[in-house]
Design brief:
Blueprint (H helix, E strand, L loop, with lengths): L4 H10 L5 E6 L4 H12 L3 E7 L1 H11 L7 E4 L3 H13 L5 E4 L4 H11 L7 E7 L7 E4 L9 H17 L6 E5 L10 H14 L7 E6 L1 H5 L1 H6 L12 E3 L3 H13 L4 E7 L5 E2 L7 H16 L8
Helix pairs in contact: 1-11, 2-3, 2-11, 4-5
């Protein structure tokens, strides 16, 4: 799995920043350590390893990561590692978190307790596909299980602000559903229509939102025209808003495993950027995620632009 120029440009941009001090939570696993090795090679991070020291040492040796000069914090379990990493972020000891080999819910439990802001927390996959002409943002596929309308609006705003920080001035958002017409018996179509109107009324800022759109007419102008859908978003979408976590997660993994996408995953809305890829993601996905986290950290103010 290789990157072309889209995510690579973000990596080159992140390399202009000082290395991000980041806690690698539950670090003792090969995929995790390989991602750290790539980020170190690109001088993107200053890692603090949290986990079982013996496992960290073994996987660091396997991945060619020298531990000399890097902190190793002992943790006795996934939960202990998550607590210690979150505490370090809360006190400013580290500037970001990276999910290691623990489950997302284990990491997010202390994050929600200690690292909340006035924003809703949500997850965004930044996807590079050879078959699509620009980066695509998929949200939320990891945190919010069944968001209501106002939570969806917050999730959209997070993804829009991230897209803007990454260089997209006016992101185009498709609020997805199974169909592209409003059917009251399908709640996601009603939510999508409301979100579209909310963007027109500036309740969602700096974005063009259209919905409901089915996946085919969101990404294909030809499909939209065939179905006689007049949309400025169709075929040029930046952000895909999933109706719920199930559909978002399935969509994201389809893009990765069937379409060959590279998936960089981050959490938006916490006090620090959180690198949150899937546990099975390859090292290149973690590298791209770290680059985005670095940009988030150094351009944080832009994400809260009013």
């Amino acid at each position: 799995m290789n990157m072309s120029d889209k995510l690579q440009r973000l990596i080159e941009r992140a390399k202009q920043n000082p290395p991000l001090t980041i806690a690698v939570v539950d670090a003792g696993e090969r995929h995790v350590m390989q991602g750290v090795a790539q980020a170190l090679d690109h001088q993107l991070i200053e890692p603090v390893f949290i986990g079982i020291p013996q496992r960290i040492e073994a996987t660091a040796l396997e991945a060619g990561v020298p531990l000399d000069g890097h902190r190793v914090v002992e943790a006795t379990s996934e939960e202990d590692a998550a607590r210690k990493g979150t505490e370090m972020a809360a006190t400013g000891d580290v500037a970001g978190l990276m999910k290691g080999w623990l489950h997302t819910d284990v990491l997010m439990h202390p994050v929600l307790a200690r690292l909340r802001t006035d924003r809703w927390l949500s997850h965004v996959f930044v996807v590079e596909l050879a078959s699509y002409h620009k980066l695509m943002f998929v949200t939320d596929a990891a945190i919010n299980i069944a968001p209501d309308l106002m939570q969806k609006a917050a999730i959209v705003q997070n993804a829009v602000d991230l897209a803007r920080v990454l260089g997209i001035e006016l992101p185009k958002v498709a609020a997805l559903s199974a169909v592209e017409v409003i059917k009251p018996e399908i709640a996601s179509t009603v939510d999508a229509a409301c979100l579209s109107k909310m963007a027109q009324r500036r309740q969602i800022r700096h974005a063009m939102v259209d919905g409901p759109l089915a996946f085919d007419n969101a990404i294909s102008l030809e499909s939209a025209q065939t179905k006689q859908i007049d949309s400025d978003v169709a075929g040029d979408v930046d952000v895909l808003l999933a109706p719920d976590l199930n559909s978002g997660n399935i969509l994201a993994k389809d893009l990765e495993y069937l379409a060959g996408g590279v998936m960089a995953g981050v959490v938006v809305g916490a006090k620090v950027p959180i690198v949150l890829p899937s546990r099975s993601d390859p090292p290149v996905a973690r590298l791209a995620s770290v680059a985005i986290a670095s940009i988030m950290h150094h351009d944080f103010g832009k994400m809260f632009d009013e």
